[in-house]
Specification:
This protein is an alpha/beta fold and about 775 residues long. It contains 23 helices and 31 strands. A hairpin with a 3-residue loop joins strand 3 and strand 4. The two termini are about 45 Å apart.
């Protein structure tokens, strides 16, 4: 073959053809990385996806400059998934490549393996006579002599002959030698300089390979769990995707473990997806006790080098049998995939927002299983979706027979679902009975729980000290210079922060509008909740879990470990704490304000609120006794609140189903949001109107807008949005073709040369 089609990490939806130099003909292959030039000055690392003899006629073909791999880095099943994501989510294949690979595999200098420095005797001194000469040489350098003798002892020289030693000498790291001899690196360097010892580097992995599996830790399933397990296997005989709808604490994890074990016994791999890194920390501990070093962990808080090593291990002859990870784990290579588990499938965290590709990991996992095998004789991997609160689309697919459905309606060992008591904060505020954001009932129940040696959780879905700062006199609110949003007050960092662009500002000492010095935070974030509860309950041992306190991987582990072990007994957090964490001693959960979730300008607001409240409520009373949830709201009579209280998911689903059907929203249609961004507001306004008019020529009333999103300027760019409501069964390839054509026609206008247009397919 003379030419190679290559994917490059650029936001263009095409492959690029390069010539294969004669001296590289034997080394090029599908899935290998190559270094190529692109444009007048740029060099990129690309991936070969096709070899052929068709010379391009429209441009001069450049040669491949270097082949970077000995073996392919990409499997054909992965490329099929990349192409589906690029097509379905209308994202350039180059952006999919950038989002799929760890950074160390995309850079020209590539991944730098971790190495350790080892020490050994130089060849001239590897026999008895010359060794004695060496020891005499060191007579006047006692520290060097001591280090040299320590090396001989550690390497085993004292116990065997020199010939045996050369064959069986123990390898010694420089660190080991320094520790054993009590010397420092300068002493070792002197021995190297004198030619007695020499150093060499050995590549070492960052992955923990020490834990052995302990199959005795697999718990037997209860009768109810066994029935669900059997139903899942029966469902897999007829359906490729099955929903396991089990109430919180119904024992879904043990069912997962038995399903994983079944796959491993048949020499197949398992991908276990979770929506939050915090969840993978706790699940990792549970799975490691069972599967030991057969388990690999993959998510964005791991270092890039660790992720590269996992990728390479999955391509090796000894891959992990089970991968536990967040959404990016769907891109890993699998050689014998048999099962994909998507736990907490309803979670919005599975949807990538920015940057592209804006894929949903649940949908990508289902397509990975479907596209994995092209050989009809080999069964396709199965997908299990697990949750206590299915999203509308998933439950609709299960109820209409597209997916299998298995239900677990009882908690493990018959423990009752928590009692939910509603507190009307509007009435209490009117009677001046609230203590800041806390009702008397909430404080009393939390205090009683802590006094009994139990734990409590407080949930507030806003981080920071206060959502905004406000002048008490004139109502002025500081806003971000780059985005159309108010700034969040972070008291511990003594600054105002934009949660959209990350820009920080000093807290003003006076109002620039009226000069008033009384500026106060309005509303409550988790930081303020923590501060106030410390004053009210000084005896509480408090930890907080939100984006501000979990910026590192170790922070997740520390917070969860401290709470699990009882070192802390009151956990305050955002939605991170609502997602399947299992704490056995939590008896009280307080939801500070449900209203912020309900009062969103979004057709999914009630769906997300139901899920969030039900999930965070499920953290209470998980082992041994019934828990209590205090739900504070100004709107206690809202239907969704009552449905959560009575654990009435089916009524909730039927209400939502009727509403969505009446107004033509998912699952009764597909949504595509078309976003436009530009530095000039008038340009993006004109462009959005023109694009809307073009699209209406083809799609008619299916096009809504343009309009301004809730936040209409981010990072100095003004934003407009068009909405396409497309009925189920519409010809989606043709839809994408029309959208691409309309965009291409728009961008030919010089006014829109710097206009950004992108798509959010199946938005959340």
């Amino acid at each position: 073959m003379s030419y190679a089609d290559i994917i490059l990490p650029v936001p263009l939806n095409s492959l690029f053809t390069y010539a294969i130099p004669t001296d590289m003909a034997e080394s090029v292959a599908f899935g290998k990385r190559v270094l190529v030039s692109f444009g007048p000055k740029n060099h990129y690392v690309g991936i070969i996806v096709r070899l052929h003899d068709n010379k391009p006629t429209t441009y001069k073909v450049k040669p491949i400059e270097q082949v970077l791999d000995d073996t392919p880095l990409l499997l054909e099943s992965q490329l099929r998934l990349w192409q589906w994501i690029a097509d379905y989510y209308m994202s350039p294949i180059g952006d999919v490549y950038k989002g799929a690979l760890p950074a160390g595999l995309k850079a020209e200098d590539g991944y730098k393996p971790r190495t350790e420095t080892y020490i050994r005797l130089t060849l001239p001194y590897q026999n008895e006579p010359t060794l004695h000469v060496a020891l005499n040489m060191l007579a006047r350098a006692p520290r060097q002599q001591e280090a040299f003798i320590s090396y001989l002892t550690l390497s085993g020289w004292d116990n065997i002959s020199s010939e045996e030693w050369r064959n069986d000498c123990a390898e010694i790291t420089r660190e080991e030698l320094m520790n054993a001899s009590g010397t420092d690196s300068s002493t070792i360097n002197q021995l190297v300089k004198r030619g007695l010892l020499e150093t060499y580097e050995v590549e070492v992995g960052r992955l923990n390979l020490n834990t052995e599996p302990h199959l005795e830790n697999i718990k037997p399933l209860s009768d109810i769990q066994q029935e669900a397990y059997n139903q899942i296997l029966f469902s897999f005989m007829k359906k490729d995707v099955t929903l396991l709808h089990g109430v919180t604490s119904s024992g879904k994890t043990e069912i997962y473990i038995h399903l994983i074990m079944r796959e491993l016994e048949q020499h197949r791999q398992v991908l276990f997806l979770m929506p939050e890194i915090a969840l993978t920390v706790q699940m990792m501990e549970r799975l490691q006790r069972v599967f030991g070093n057969r388990l690999g962990i993959y998510h964005s808080k791991y270092s890039d080098a660790e992720r590269v090593e996992i990728w390479q291990k999955q391509l090796s002859g000894n891959p992990y049998d089970v991968i536990l990870g967040a959404r990016s784990a769907v891109f890993l290579p699998f050689q014998h995939l048999g099962l994909i588990i998507v736990d907490e499938e309803h979670e919005t965290s599975y949807k990538q927002q920015d940057p592209a590709p804006r894929y949903h990991a649940r949908s990508a996992a289902i397509m990975l299983a479907k596209l994995y095998n092209t050989d009809a004789s080999t069964p396709a991997p199965k997908v299990l979706l697990g949750t206590a609160t299915p999203c509308m689309e998933t439950y609709h697919n299960a109820k209409t027979g597209k997916y299998g459905l298995v239900e677990l309606t009882q908690r493990y060992e018959g423990i009752e679902l928590p009692e939910i008591q509603i507190v009307d904060t509007k009435d209490l505020q009117h009677r001046k009975m609230m203590n800041g954001p806390f009702s008397p009932l909430l404080l009393a129940r939390v205090r009683e729980a802590l006094e009994r040696g139990e734990q409590a959780i407080l949930f507030q879905n806003r981080r920071g000290w206060a959502p905004m700062l406000e002048c008490k006199q004139c109502g002025w609110v500081p806003r971000c210079q780059h985005c159309d949003v108010s700034l969040t007050l972070h008291k511990s960092m003594n600054q105002l922060t934009c949660h959209y662009c990350g820009y920080t500002y000093q807290i003003p000492t006076e109002c620039p509008a009226c000069g008033c010095k009384q500026l106060q935070g309005r509303g409550y974030g988790t930081e303020k909740i923590e501060d106030q509860i410390r004053d009210i309950l000084p005896e509480a041992r408090i930890s907080r879990m939100d984006l501000d306190t979990t910026r590192t991987r170790n922070a997740y582990e520390r917070i969860i470990s401290d709470f699990s072990s009882g070192r802390t007994n009151l956990l305050i957090g955002t939605q991170m704490i609502s997602k399947g964490l299992d704490f056995g001693n939590v008896s009280v959960v307080g939801i500070i304000s449900a209203d912020g979730m309900l009062n969103q300008p979004d057709f999914r607001a009630y769906e997300h609120a139901y899920m969030m409240i039900a999930q965070v409520s499920g953290r209470a009373g998980r082992k041994g006794k019934r828990g209590l949830v205090i739900l504070q709201t100004k709107n206690p009579d809202v239907s969704v609140i009552q449905q959560v209280v009575h654990n009435d998911f089916k009524t909730f689903y039927n209400d939502m189903k009727s509403e969505r059907s009446a107004f033509n929203y998912p699952p009764y249609c597909h949504l595509i949001y078309v976003y436009m961004k530009h530095k000039k507001d008038d340009v993006v306004e004109t462009a959005s109107r023109e694009l809307g008019a073009r699209l209406r020529q083809w799609f008619g009333s299916r096009v809504l807008g343009p309009d301004k999103p809730t936040v209409s300027r981010v990072k100095t760019l003004s934003i407009r949005k068009l909405v396409l409501k497309l009925e189920n069964g519409i010809d989606m390839p043709r839809v994408r073709q029309y959208l691409a054509l309309a965009q291409e026609q728009m961008l030919q206008d010089k006014r829109y040369a710097s206009l950004q247009v992108y798509y959010d397919v199946d938005p959340l």
